[in-house]
Amino acid sequence: MTDVLARAEGIGMRYAAPGTAPVDVLEGIDCEIAAGDRIAIIGPSGSGKSTLMHILGGLIAPTSGHIDWPALGPRESLMPVKVQFVFQGPSLFPALDVLGNITLPLFLAGHTTGARDRARQLLARFALEELADKLPEELSGGQAQRVAMLRALTTAPRLILADEPTGQLDSHTAEHFLDGVLELASTAGIALVIATHDAQVAARMARLWAMDHGRLANSAREREEA
């Protein structure tokens, strides 16, 4: 039986700022992520993709419904080893060079032996060795996105949730980079959930979730993995 990494039942998220009417960002969502899944979340900006991923990874709690992580344990134990995020905006620590950013999750988890060697191997695998000593401010947007993904991969987590991880890459670079990410994820048994506007990226995933005004319009479409 396949391990269920995350299961959401009827979850919703409502934001209520003082003096304004409450806004329902998510409503009545049922979904689950299994070990080794490849899921693309598509939908227009503001449809709730990022909020859903933050809830699925335990970063925030929903205001209604229930979520648990049957194969991973309690919410407070998820990060940084079992679940990793790749955020849409800048997320690298400005005071650390690329090598330091990639090894940070390993050090936080107490896995210090060979951490820098593993980071250098990841950089070499993606032909990014020359970035090792650079600070985030010296990187292009596309380089920073790739480094953030390598940071997520370094602990070989059970689940990676990535928000537009190829948004600043040209189509050829994005395809080549995704090839390497999918290969590593398959080897390590990592489930991968990607929120994306890129149809080519979505086509590489086995399952497609379409968000529409805070609801999952389609959570069951299956694709044959590329």
From TrEMBL:
Pfam families: ABC_tran. The keyword ATP-binding applies. GO terms for molecular function: ATP binding. Keywords: ATP-binding, Nucleotide-binding. InterPro entries: AAA+_ATPase (IPR003593), ABC_transporter-like_ATP-bd (IPR003439), ABC_transporter-like_CS (IPR017871), ABC_transpr_LolD-like (IPR015854), P-loop_NTPase (IPR027417). Residues 6-226 form the ABC transporter domain. It comes from the Bacteria. PROSITE patterns: ABC_TRANSPORTER_1, ABC_TRANSPORTER_2. Coiled coil: none annotated. SMART domains: AAA. The keyword Zinc does not apply. This is ABC transporter ATP-binding protein. It comes from Acidimangrovimonas pyrenivorans.
